[in-house]
Predict the structure.
Amino acid sequence: MSVGALVPTGLRCAHKEAPLSVEVDRVRFSWHLVGGGAGRRQIAYQVRVARDEAGLESGWAWDSGRSEGDSSTGIDYAGMPLQPAHCYFWKARVWDEAEQLGPWSSSAEFTMALSPRSGWDGCSWIGLGRDPAPVEAPAGDGPIDPVALAMRPAPYLRRTFTLISPVVSARLYVTALGLYRVSVNGVPAGDNVLAPGWTDYSKRFLYQTCDVTDLLVDGENTIGAIVTDGWACGFFGFDRKHAGAHYAPDPQLLAQLVVRCTNEDQRIATDGSWVSSTGRIVYSDLLMGEGSEPAREHEGWDRPGFDATAWRPVACRERGTAKLVADPGPPIVVAEEVSAKSVKAAPDGELIVDFGQNIAGWCRLRVDEPAGRLVTIRHGEVLGPDGSLYLDNLRTARQSDTFATSGGKESLEPRFTLHGFRYAGITGLSGRLDPDDVTACVVHSDTPRTGTFECSSPDVNKLFANIDWGQRANFISVPTDCPQRDERLGWLGDAQVFVRTAAYNRDVASFFAKWLDDVSDAQLATGAFTDFVPRLNHDYSASPAWGDAGVIVPWTIYKMYGDKGVLERNFAAMAAWMDFLDKANPDRLWTNQLGANYGDWLAPKGDLTPRELLATAYWAYDATLMAEVAAAIGRQQEAEEYKELAGEVTEAFRKSYVGANGQVESGTQTAYVLALQMGLMPEDLRANAAEYLVEAIASEDWHLSTGFVGVGYLLPVLSSNGYSEVAYKLLEQRSFPSWRYTIDHGATTIWERWDGYTEEHGFQSPRMNSFNHYSLGSVGEWFYRFVLGIELAPGASGFDRLVMRPHPGGSLSHARGSFCSVRGEISSAWERKGGRFTLDIQVPPNVRASVRVPSAAPADVVEAGGSGPARVAEYPGAVGQHEAVFEVGSGRYSFSGPELAPTGGESLGTGLSSRA
Ligand code: BGC
């Protein structure tokens, strides 16, 4: 039967749709395929790249010709040299499983970055035309004086110019030491916020590119910019540093407008011809908040015709040696607005607005007040017992915005700060506040949702939502630990436990592409990865399970997106880390160079897992992953060496920590989880070790005892070893410590600590108690991989091959969800009803899946209403104990069969089943 052709769609370059600036070493293509019928596959592809659409027909820069294979992601450009700042068009077509050549895709664009050598010639850093007056870090632990902050108004910068001939196109390239907002003739250029994001500004600046063709007018034009302290010059991290302590004393701008005109091109660069002043922003800081006095604004300052004679020439500074690189990551945006759920007065009269959701961002307030009133908005995650804002856990972060009203109806909204909050406390209004007058703006890196999940348990659905909200609030240029207190750092341990969950939830390919450059930038000369990145001026490094992120994160991103570019780019850094561990630990136990050695951080009963055991497990895991990484990018020799190293470290681990029957020293849940997850148990002892793990859980009366490090793999390890019912027990556990306990106590995001709040003790110490940390949400991957059963096949990457193996269990009568992979949407929906189990799945073209349907009678499982002929069924094969196995290609399939009683116990054969 002839079926329609396969057509590439969703074309991406550097994991972005039509990027405006791509560095030459990131030009890699991907697409997914559409086409009806079942079992559809690409067997070869052709890509063509040209300077213009006509060139795609003749005169192209690259024609890959027919390239064999099913690759549809990470296709490396291999044509004529690509010219800086030039726009290119590309398209792709494929041959399908029947050798049928499909039509060309629609064409897509990408534009190259500026020349790394000369692209910024003639541009200088510019800032306020006065001597910088750094604000000193306040002494002691007392509150920070807001007056000190108010003394630092934001520089306003402007330049007018006249267009010399009609415009063909105009691109604005901008970065800042601090944060910037740029406008052309008073209209904001782009909708990104908190740009340019955070990097180690002593090494690398990211510039953003915006098409401003439509904002230019004939004759006189104005570029206006505001720069504020941001990460570069403001308060950041936990050491109370400000103004110059981290990167620079004063915020500055570096920008250029490149106008292609019909006659002659025109370029307006930041230099001594710009002028500066200040305006309504009297202070602005990411941690502290923003203060705004409209009376100080020069009306029309950012538009042509403004009299700027009173403005001073800017202060100029040469460019220095830090790299200037096109931003490989997604922009930070206002992704959503949340309306207020209620407004109540606290005992002291402060109006407390509840948004019903903990987020990162800021508020927008509509007021109608006389001129000159001071309206203040404070932000907190939780309320104290009397209904007032609880702010103690913010430590020195103030999260407070103040606006002087200008009189009449107006909208008050900060732009250069960031708060972690569910509640806002408002003072200074003369009248009542209607909930409709206040909105929370949700701010994060633009990482579109790729995963969905829904099941019969509202609490489990709530947990899923909390995990995603925690991710959104912390994926802001870097993956941070928390968005509220004076910390907000890109801790590596947190990132490595959560990265797979993150990549199921949302498209984080370009987000991590950016951050992994930061990780390499921060790496010490010894090869040690630092514990957080960018590293500021601390030298915390090499902590087990934190430093290892330097290996685990690139490997996971490769597995999830199938693009080997991330491995090639980071291989040298990963190898240097391995050499560092190797040199320090000749005995093959990681007992030297343990850095700050956090252990199984924040385990609920304290950290009982020996730290060197944990460290050695991670080292072995790194070595195993490195063998896979090296093999994937054709480094056979290194692959062999890492395999050998993995063997040696595993051996040392077994000798030191594994008993004859499979007990692991200390007997903690985390010790068993790591040993099982990281391949450290001898094959014949795995079953025993899994039983001991279940015993360790049973002895806690079916509670978990894991901290940051053990928690992510806990449920996956249980399910992979036949103990899904135990995994569900932990998932659905209601009493402390558990995820549901946090939900029962009001959590709308994931808490930093299991005991962030308990009925017995109230709030944990405010010294470290965030209600928005994603780490303990690393259970999220289990929802996709095990509950829904959307799992990479062994050895697969980028979801080219799947094992679809749902693990029904617990109280769930159904679960359904999807994952939009780089090869297209994969979905899974199952139901247990009337003694039957049904499973509906969707597999996109160019993907093969081994479907494993759990059933009490595998031979009776049938596939009904499926997409038909291309299905290859190993049927009715009862493989393993209770599964029917089907090998399928793309299509929609529906399976059903007698339900497998969800005890999990009968197959355990452990005697523990009675307790399960
Ligand atoms: C952070 C964590 C981080 C840890 C290191 C904390 O202050 O909030 O998320 O991983 O320090 O142990």
